User: Fold this.
Amino acid sequence: MKTILTRATLIDCVDPTPKPDSTVVVEGGRITQIARGAAPTDTAGAEVFDLKGAYLLPGLWDVHIHPDYLTLNDMPLPEQVTLFGHKLMAALTESGITGLRCAGSHHYMDVAWKRAFDSGQHVGPRLFASGHFLTTTGGHFLTSGHALEVDGPYGWVKAIREQIKNGVDHIKLNLSGGIMGPPWDLHTHSFLLDDEIRAAFAICKQRDFKLMAHATNPAAVKAAVTLGAHSIEHGYIMDDECIELLVKHGTWYVPTLAISHLTPKQTTNLWERNWVTQRNLAHALCCRAEAASDVHATWFRKALDAGVKMALGSDIRPLKDAALLEMGLWVRDGATPWQTLVAATRHGAAVCGMGDQLGTVETGKLADLIVVGANPLEDINNVRKLQLVFKEGRLVSDKRTPS
Assistant:
């Protein structure tokens, strides 16, 4: 099937200059032609979309997600799996999130949905699965129901082998505490002993599995980067040596600003206010977030200015709102709309090992595309003005208002 998108203002996420009056042709799920000027005259058998100047860009990515934090006491597993799938699909159709990387889900529900989407059973985003996130006894976010407590070098090796056996794409390891947790779960504390962390990284390297490292303080960040982490998640507190190591090793950084920034006192627009009202975060956790916010923002900006490789991940729910809120926070903390858009498209695909196939609008790439009604390079929140979503050139969501 051929799809032709005409009269588009193209933001390809390669060049920051929008290209008006562009035409993109898709055949067999891939972009086969990109042209400027007049639309092709040979449209026989093609589905043609006249975009009337609207903005065509790659689909968005959120590379740090979780399903709702529900235990089996909160909701039976079948209902949880179903709910997660609906929320994944809503992220695609309601917000144009075409790629997602999971950072922890119990009972491998992310693996199940990845297989369902990849096989064509259901239409959903591209999903990269982690299975459980792994932490120590007395580790991070045990109340989530998605953590496995692991101790001792061989305990870590066995747990990672279990994740691999069950079909994950990458390993999520929590080296340290977090902002959201009980008093003993602090982001200033690291949890693993040296022999534990070395064993965990060694088995991932031996089995050629990327390691997604929850690291929230300088010691944890340095250990993870030095031992070969693929990405550092959060980095709430860093130092200059952390930045130098991230640059030297080419390690990805996913800052998840929403965790420290989205509290009632810090909201700056209606979308953020609506989210924090629905989230109804406990006062004590709001205080912890607010105490961490300025330091988090400082190291985010220093990483950005230093040229650290950075991708956009939200770590919040619902998935259809999460990446859009995080994009606004990037700009609030000093990123340009262009840097933010690249982090949410090209860099998101690259973190997931799909940079040669997705993340930009280029000839030969898979046609995961969105159309928005206004220029996101002028205001990043224009990504909310979603009109169309395509997955491999197939229309999966049409939000245009009939004239």
